[in-house]
Design brief:
The strands form 4 sheets. Strands 1, 2, 8, 9, 10, 11, 18 and 19 form an 8-stranded mixed β-sheet that branches. Strands 12, 13, 14, 15, 16 and 17 form a 6-stranded antiparallel β-sheet that branches. With 608 residues, the chain is of the alpha+beta class. It has 20 helices and 19 strands. Mean pLDDT is 91; it is low at 353-363 and 399-409.
């Protein structure tokens, strides 16, 4: 069955036909990862998402599959160990999405500095050791202050002592979600977006066995039954638990808001991703990342109590980030008027406890930090072997966890509720595959014990996402080949390369949608991309396409005035919208653009 808007009614009918083995609520990266592994295990799987796939937290990250050097800021050693190893797994199963991008870590001699040169070198060496990085081109290096000034001319030089450079990976978070969902569907899962769960249903014994769902596309409600139900709704986990009348509704999460802002490269140019202390002695660190001719920076990290469905960028968020960026890049003088786009996302932080997959949520005491530095130094000097180093790290004693939002670790929790509802919450995007594997272990045990259903065991470290079926150690060669396919189909090389980068191994399938020619007002490449996303990626709205399938609203906002009407018109043709629906979809796109471009804040500033 195609994965499109046209097949959505049939997908809903299929989901209702008989009880599922597993129903997953939440189509972000966590739910998508579980759906893929469960479907590959030959289970009958359903996935429901109240918005578009990845529309919540999973498309609103810093867009890195990072190794977590920042967790060494608070010496969460086990978290870093897990993260760098998992990053390599993701690069293997989704080779067209995360890309290596060495990160620059400027060091300043100033109050509140996270790392001095010695501590930074210890942290980077430990980071490389945990990641298995042993030499060029990605082993960490150090730079003098003069070398940093040459590399990043606009960077503030007062109190600059040098910098470290270490390996990190840039990522397309929304694409990672949809490629997991597509792979799950290819393995037999049924996935439906824009379908909101209103109530958890129970059998006569009080066990959770179904859901009542509102259909935001067709209107009305439908019911789905399942042997097991997994709550993978991220920041909404507590809200979904409130839809289950059988549960104690004590809050388990501490959501925080993170904001990122986008400017043109001509406003703020950086040659590579940069990560530095805010310069405001507030304990925060900020990323600055170049992408597609733009530069984005963030994030904030503040406790959040507003609208979970649509967190907004507010004036204090902008004021804070502009203050930071203009402190570190004083010649740029970035203003509100320079901001082309923005996004705000919620992190589903767990208020307390350990990561069920092994990560710690506590920070090390001062004495433990001293032991850590001594152990790593001894290892580097050849006075300690790796086994002894690992035992020394495992024995380090934690201090009390800090209360500030920016210091709350990204642990995860897997809970079986009193009525059998499973809740998988917390975690980091980088850990999604491992979180899903942990959940699947419990799902297999429960299905076997309670329903005599034996799920096939799968090695999820080798389970490729859609578009990732090519050699992970030959990405550039693959991209060259995929680009050549586009050129052969009549696309300019730059457009063909963009499609290859976006769709990876699915590029040939995308190009079949170019055969009918370009849609009015769109290039042939954009036409093929749009048609493919509608027909094979369940793209229901222009916002789904321009914000998550392509990121144009974020990193090509200056072209939206050209793209908007042709994209809406072509989707109206493909999906059979009448004039009223077409106007409504155009207005929703305008609203999304206004929110991202901070139109209200700019208007208020102009009036003042």
């Amino acid at each position: 069955m195609a994965f499109s808007a046209r097949t959505r009614p049939a997908a809903i009918q299929r989901m209702q036909a008989e009880p599922l083995d597993l129903l997953i609520i939440g189509g972000g990266i966590t739910g998508a990862g579980v759906a893929l592994q469960a479907a590959a295990s030959n289970l009958r799987v359903g996935l429901l998402e109240m918005q578009d796939f990845g529309a919540g937290t999973s498309s609103r990250s810093t867009k890195l599959v990072h190794g977590g050097l920042r967790y060494l800021k608070t010496f969460d050693v086990r978290v870093v160990a897990d993260t760098v190893q998992e990053r390599a797994v993701i690069q293997g199963i989704a080779p067209h999405i995360p890309r290596p991008a060495p990160m620059l870590l400027p060091l300043y001699d100033e109050p509140g500095a996270t790392f001095d040169p010695f501590a930074a070198k210890v942290a980077m060496d430990l980071y490389d050791r945990l990641a298995g990085i042993t030499g060029p081109p990605y082993a960490n290096t150090t730079l003098t202050a003069a070398a940093v000034r040459d590399r990043v001319p606009g960077l503030a030089t007062a109190n600059l002592t040098g910098a470290g450079v270490y390996l990190d990976y840039v990522n397309n978070d929304a694409r990672l979600v949809i490629e997991n969902v597509k792979a799950a569907v290819a393995h037999g899962a049924t996935a439906v977006s824009h379908a909101e769960v209103l109530e958890i249903l129970h059998d006569d014994a009080g066990r959770a066995n179904g859901v009542r769902v509102h259909d935001h596309v067709q209107g009305g409600e439908f019911t789905v039954r399942a042997r097991l139900i997994l709550n993978a709704t991220g920041p909404w986990s507590d809200y979904l638990r409130e839809a289950d009348a059988a549960l104690d509704h004590t809050k388990t999460l501490r959501p925080t808001k993170g904001v990122h802002l986008v400017v043109d490269d001509s406003v703020l140019h950086v040659p590579q991703p940069i990560y530095f202390d805010s310069g405001l002695a507030d304990g925060r660190m900020i990323f600055v990342v170049p992408r597609a001719g733009k530069t984005y920076f963030g994030t904030t990290d503040t406790d959040y109590r507003g609208d979970y469905r649509q967190p907004r960028v507010e004036q204090p968020d902008v004021d804070y980030l502009l203050r930071v960026i203009n402190t570190r890049f004083p010649q740029a003088s970035v203003r509100l008027a320079d901001l082309e786009a923005s996004w705000a996302g919620l992190r589903p932080l767990i208020a307390g406890g350990d990561d069920y997959n092994g990560g710690a949520v506590h920070h090390l005491s001062d004495a433990a930090v001293a032991k850590l530095i001594a152990a790593v130094t001894a290892y580097q000097a050849g006075k300690m072997d790796r086994a002894h180093l690992e035992r020394a790290l495992a024995a380090l004693e934690p201090a009390e966890a800090a209360a500030a939002p920016s210091t709350v670790s990204r642990g995860s929790a897997l809970t079986t509720e009193a009525d059998g509802l499973l809740t998988l919450a917390g975690g980091k995007l980088t850990d999604y595959r491992k979180m899903a594997a942990g959940a699947m272990a419990l799902i297999r045990r429960t299905l076997a014990a309670d329903f005599d259903i034996r799920a096939q065991d799968v090695d999820s470290t080798r389970l490729r996402v859609s578009g990732g079926d090519f050699a992970a150690d030959a990405v550039e060669d693959a991209m060259t080949d995929f680009t050549a396919l586009g050129v052969a189909a009549g696309l300019p090389e730059a457009d063909a390369h963009q499609l290859a980068e976006r769709f990876g191994g699915n590029t040939a399938a995308v190009l079949t949608h170019a055969a009918a020619g370009a849609a009015p007002g769109l290039s042939l490449a954009e036409t093929a991309s749009l048609r493919y996303c509608v027909e094979e990626e369940a793209t229901m709205t222009p916002v789904d396409y321009l914000l998550r399938r392509t990121s144009a609203l974020l990193f090509a906002a200056d072209t939206i005035h050209v793209l908007a009407d042709p994209v809406v018109a072509e989707m109206a043709r493909l999906l059979g919208w009448g004039p009223e629906e077409t106007r409504a979809q155009r207005q929703r796109l305008q609203t999304a653009y206004d929110e991202s471009s901070l139109r209200a804040l700019k208007r208020a500033a102009h009036q003042n």
